[in-house]
From TrEMBL, chain A:
Pfam families hit by this protein: DUF2849
Name this protein carries in UniProt: Uncharacterized protein DUF2849
InterPro entries, A to Z: DUF2849
UniProtKB/TrEMBL annotation, chain B:
PANTHER family cross-referenced by the UniProt entry: BLR3264 PROTEIN (PTHR32439:SF9), FERREDOXIN--NITRITE REDUCTASE, CHLOROPLASTIC (PTHR32439)
Keywords from the named record: 4Fe-4S, Heme, Iron, Iron-sulfur, Metal-binding, Oxidoreductase
Keyword Transport attached: no
Domain of life assignment: Bacteria
GO MF term (any one): oxidoreductase activity
Alphabetical list of InterPro entries matching this protein: NIR_SIR_4Fe-4S (IPR051329), NiRdtase/SiRdtase_haem-b_fer (IPR005117), Nit/Sulf_reduc_fer-like_dom_sf (IPR036136), NO2/SO3_Rdtase_4Fe4S_dom (IPR006067), NO2/SO3_Rdtase_4Fe4S_sf (IPR045854)
Protein name: Sulfite reductase (NADPH) hemoprotein beta-component
All copies of domain Nitrite/Sulfite reductase ferredoxin-like, residue ranges: 52-111, 347-398
Kinase as UniProt keyword: no
Pfam families in the record: NIR_SIR, NIR_SIR_ferr
UniProtKB/TrEMBL annotation, chain C:
Species of origin: Roseibium hamelinense
Pfam families: DUF934
InterPro entries: UCP030820
Protein name stated in the entry: Uncharacterized protein (DUF934 family)
Lineage: superkingdom: Bacteria
Length: 99, 552, 176
């Protein structure tokens, strides 16, 4: 399974593509894509968001599901989703704002 | 320190305006990200793992209280309350908003600071010995030359699109504290037989994927030739440095592939063509710039007084601080004090907004308003009266920057690693924190003595692991963090690149591995005055291999 | 046709690039590689209507013996990240005293135009529409205070620093 992630242009915040093509800033709200076709279509949505000055640097990443919700496969993406492991006070789930 | 005149103010203000306009064009959709990226990078604005990151230059590591307070203000107002001092005498802010960056740069310009050339394939912030202008062993203050180089390299029309980044470091003392031999150009101030000041010149040092120690191209470069000779090196590099492979694009590869003698001949030939030209430094002008760096008026004082000595007897933390965090000053009665940005278990190089404010206050109160940032990610007050040490120490304790560990095993250099960096293959900071906790006991650290651990989160080597006495490189193996250890590196005047000791260690194992290395050293050293590095150089890596991997 | 920017003016010119080893076309303005020029220097000089294109890693020094008979030398930016053309132009102007037209060609970006001008480039072949648009709008994105003296563009020395200059373009009331 894949989700699409990027940074919001204005403030640089990490975001994921969620329902209704909104960019959400909690991984738990991200929409999951199964298969190549769905991922390609989602990346096209992302490309449009880049063109619309909403986000920068979109890419897809692998995730799995467990009882906690969506879990990125790579450590890098887990840290990116949660915030620096060294600064628990900046953990990402603290605020939930949509683009 | 150097003060901007109207010309410099106008220069930085215009550059800020230019960037402001670029941000405006980006937000208005006139510039795409692809077009904007090189422009923002030229102003030190990265997009990192979590957010934008702004890298601000602290030229040759020198700043004053007002500037430090401004950094605190930026951390508080536009960021999340802290900044990270780097090995290149820069400070990084990890959470700025793109829309705020023009305002940040305007605020910086108010105090004569900027982010020009903190990234990109250009000549980067020129770094210098952090004890410059104060150290007892200094031949001459390197900062006037660093300032001249900084000016000449700023927005250079010919050298802003080099094959790769280009780093210059300069030291004024025979004890090299600026790691000049691992820079693209390393300058070591020296005197010739006539007593004139000049430079020993090294070219082609660098870390990264292919670490190399710089090669000497000049035993003595006269002062007046500094710019002409630098321009000659840069022109040869700009023309002949490789551009087909970014991992082979640094000048070190050109030195390596062309051969030292041939490259030296190229540089000298180029230098001959321009040495009598407009870049020749007139003596009056060097002296004029030097005057900016004149030491503050310091009255010769006396040695540690009886009551300071008395406190040393009874206060172990204070004694530890005195033993490790002072560097001999050239004026009797004074010392250069290292404020440790390495609290036990803390994040190397991070300073909170409040800490920065405290440092500014203390510099004004006790340090003639001078502050230095070291490439070892600490802060220095270069001119402190010995008699002020007890009061100063108490205030440092209150601010959490009084650890007496400068040069010891917990004075670890670490890059941001995977907690912040988009290029990382593993985390560095948590490893530094765990090592720091393991060895944090004051007596244990002191007993071990000088030992430099340096940690990078990927092969780019921002944490200088190649030149750590113990170097740790974080890699990724099958999705897990995994750490490779090198031994015997050094960045001083006897620079060397560390050797990989053997297969790497998991995150759980790596701190134990370091401990085994340290215990082995303790067991085989000839005495307390044989440091880890000296012992390693004497016995080689066998005993260390054996302790880690068992007998071969 | 491509647009050439020179001395503040825009003009349309047509230049044919001759591949290495190819025959020289008649009746056209041609740009030839350095090697081609050196192989046919006399023929080309007799023919006229040509310029020499210096593409990295060509060395401008190879043209030393011919400079007086070369009205146009172009210096190529294979990509904006490749800054060798800056050195080529400066060497031509400052070390070889070339007096003819030095033309920037290739993939340079707008922000490089003022830098190239300072290095001695005197005309620009413009292939990027955004560069053309910006130059037509009068944009010249640069800091008008310089910290490096260059040899051939007229600039005004400032203060006591021998390396400090300001631009003649600088208005007395520049945004300061
Ligand atoms: C977080 C964002 C950073 C990025 C994206 C980054 C990127 C890089 C890259 C790509 C290199 C390799 C250059 C080459 O070999 O050509 C490098 C080298 C280096 N960086 Fe960083 N870096 C970052 C942060 C830092 C920090 C925080 C420091 C200081 C602690 C630093 C100091 C250095 C040093 C000293 C080198 C080695 C220079 C050499 O190769 O000679 N960098 N960096
Ligand atoms: S060494 Fe690697 S992980 Fe560390 S800061 Fe540099 S690029 Fe990032």
């Amino acid at each position: 399974m894949k989700v699409i992630t990027a940074n919001r242009l204005l403030d640089g915040e990490v975001v994921w593509l969620g329902a209704e093509d909104l960019w959400v800033d909690a991984l738990i709200e991200a929409k999951m894509f199964d298969g190549k076709e769905a991922t390609t279509a989602a990346l096209a949505v992302a490309a449009q968001a880049v063109a619309d000055q909403k986000i920068v640097g979109p890419y897809d990443m692998d995730v799995t599901i467990d009882e906690d919700g969506i879990v990125p496969v790579r450590l890098r993406e887990r840290i990116r989703a949660a915030g620096p492991t060294t600064h628990p006070q900046f953990r990402k789930q603290a605020a939930s704002v949509r683009v | 320190m150097y003060r901007y005149d109207e010309f410099d103010h106008s220069f930085v203000t215009q550059r800020t305006e230019q960037f402001k306009d670029q941000v405006r064009r980006r937000l208005a959709g006139e510039l795409s990200e692809d077009e904007f990226k090189p422009l923002r990078l030229m102003n030190g604005l990265y997009l990192q793992l979590h957010a934008y990151m702004l890298r601000v230059a602290i030229p040759y590591g020198t700043l004053n209280g007002r500037q430090m307070r401004k950094l605190a203000h930026i951390a508080r107002t536009y960021d999340r309350g802290y900044g990270h001092f780097t090995t290149r005498q820069n400070i990084q802010f990890n959470w700025p908003k793109l829309e705020d960056t023009p305002a940040i740069l305007e605020e910086l310009a108010e105090v004569e600071m900027h982010a020009i050339q903190t990234s990109g394939n250009c000549i980067r912030n020129v770094t210098a010995d952090h004890f410059a202008g104060a150290a007892a062993d200094e031949i001459a203050d390197p900062r006037p030359y660093a300032e001249i180089l900084r000016q000449w390299s700023s927005l250079h029309p010919e050298f802003s699109f080099l094959p790769r980044k280009f780093k210059i470091a300069i030291t004024g003392a025979p004890n090299d504290r600026a790691a000049v031999q691992v820079h693209d150009i390393g300058l070591q101030l020296t005197r010739n037989e006539a007593g004139e000041v000049g430079f020993e010149v090294f070219v082609g040092g660098g870390l990264g994927r292919t670490p190399m120690i710089g090669r000497k191209v000049r035993d003595f470069l006269p002062e007046e030739d500094l710019l002409a000779y630098s321009e000659a090196i840069l022109r040869v590099y700009n023309r002949y440095g490789r551009r087909d492979n970014k991992y082979k694009a640094r000048i070190k590869i050109l030195v390596h592939e062309t051969g030292l003698e041939e490259l030296k001949a190229d540089i000298e030939a180029e230098f001959e063509k321009i040495r009598h030209g407009v870049l020749r430094l007139p003596d009056e002008e060097v002296r004029r710039i030097e005057a900016y760096f004149a030491p503050p008026p310091l009255e010769v004082g006396s040695d540690l007084s009886a009551d300071v000595e008395a406190r040393r007897e009874t206060d172990a933390a204070f004694a530890q601080f005195l033993a490790h965090n002072l560097n001999p000053h050239r004026v009797p009665g004074y010392t250069s004090v290292t404020l440790s940005m390495k609290p036990i278990g803390g994040i190397p190089g991070d300073a909170s907004d409040d800490q920065m404010d405290v440092i500014a206050d203390l510099a004004e109160q006790f340090g003639h308003d001078e502050i230095r940032i070291s490439h070892e990610q600490n802060v220095i007050l270069p001119h402190v009266k010995l008699s002020d040490l007890p009061v100063l120490f108490d205030k440092l304790v209150a601010a959490g920057i009084a650890e007496g560990n400068a040069g010891l095993i917990t004075d670890i250099i670490a890059c941001p690693g995977m907690d912040y960096c988009a290029l990382a293959t593993a985390r560095s900071i948590p490893v530094a924190q765990r090592i720091s906790e393991r060895f944090g006991a004051a007596e244990r650290q002191a007993e071990i003595g000088e030992l430099k651990i340096k940690i990078s989160g990927c092969i780019n080597a921002c944490g200088h692991h190649h030149v750590g006495h113990i170097g740790i490189l974080g890699l990724e193996k099958k999705g897990e963090e995994f750490y490779q250890i090198t031994l015997g590196g050094s960045a001083n005047e006897n620079a060397s690149i560390g050797e990989i000791v053997g297969r790497g260690f998991s995150s759980e194992e790596v701190v134990d591995a370091v401990e085994k290395l340290v215990d082995t050293y303790m067991g085989l050293r000839t005495g307390k005055d044989e440091t880890f590095l000296e012992a390693y150089r004497r016995v080689g890596d066998e005993p260390f291999k054996e302790t880690l991997y068992g007998a071969a | 046709m491509t647009t050439i920017f020179k001395d503040g003016m825009f003009q349309e010119e047509s230049w044919t690039r001759v591949e290495p080893e190819a025959d020289l076309p008649q009746n056209r303005h041609i740009l030839v590689p350095v090697a081609t020029f050196l192989a046919h220097a006399n023929a080309l000089k007799n023919r006229g209507n040509f310029g020499v294109e210096v593409a990295p890693p060509d060395k401008v020094e190879e043209l030393a013996a011919h400079l007086d008979e070369l009205p146009l030398i172009s210096v190529v930016f294979p990509s904006f990240a490749d800054g060798r053309a800056f050195s080529a132009a400066r060497i031509l102007r400052e070390q070889m005293a070339y007096k003819g037209d030095i033309r920037a060609t290739g993939s340079y970006i707008l922000d490089q135009v003022p830098l190239a001008r300072r290095c001695g480039v005197s005309s620009f072949e413009i292939v990027k529409p955004e560069v053309l648009k910006a130059l037509k709008a009068g944009e010249w994105p640069e800091v008008t205070k310089y910290l490096q003296p260059v040899g051939t563009v007229h600039e005004i020395p400032e203060g006591t620093r021998p390396w400090a200059r300001r631009s003649v373009r600088e208005l007395p009331v520049a945004a300061e």
